[in-house]
Amino acid sequence: MIPKRWIEVYLRFLLRNRLAVGIAISLMTVFFAYEATKVKIVPQFLDFYPGPSTVRLFGHEYTWRKGHPYITIYNTFRRMFGSANVLTVILEVKQGDIYNPTTLQKLDLITKRLVETKGVVPYQVLSIAHPRMKSISTYGGAIQVREVFFPGVPQTQEDAERVKFAVYSTKGIRGLYVSQDDTAALVNAGFWEEDLDFNALYDRMMELEHDVEDANHTVYITGFPWLYTAIQRYVPEVGEVFLVTVAALAFLLWNYFRTWTGIWVPIFSGLLSSVWALGMGPLLGLNLDPLVLVVPIFLSARALSHSVQSMDRYHEEYHRLGDKHAAIVESYSHLFPPAIASVLADGIGILPVAIAPIPLIQKVAVFSSFWIISIFVSVVTLHPIILSVITPPGAQSERPAAFRWLGRGVLALGGGLFTLAALHITVTLLGPVKLVAMLAIAALLFVFHERIYRGVTAAVIAASAGRRRWAVALLSIVLYVVCPIWGWRLKVGDMTPGAALLFADHPYNVAYARLNDKFLGASQLVVIADTGKDDGMKDVAPLTTMEEFADHMETAPGAGVSVTVIDIVKQLARLFHEGEPKWGFVPDRPKYIAELFYQFTQSGQAGDLDRFLSPDMRYGTVITLFHGYSHDIIMEAIETGKRWAAEHADGDVQFLFAGGLFGVLAAVNSAVEDSYWTTLALVMLAVAACLYLTYGSLVAVAILMIPVVLSQLAAECFMYLWRIDLNVNSLPIAAAGAGVGVDYGIYHFSRMIDAFDEGRGLDEAVDYATATTGKAIIFTATTMVASTIFWWFSHLKFQAEMGFLLALLMVFNTFGGLVIVPAWMKIIRPRFLLRRRAEAAARTPAQLAVG
Question: Structure pTM?
Answer without folding.
Answer: 0.80
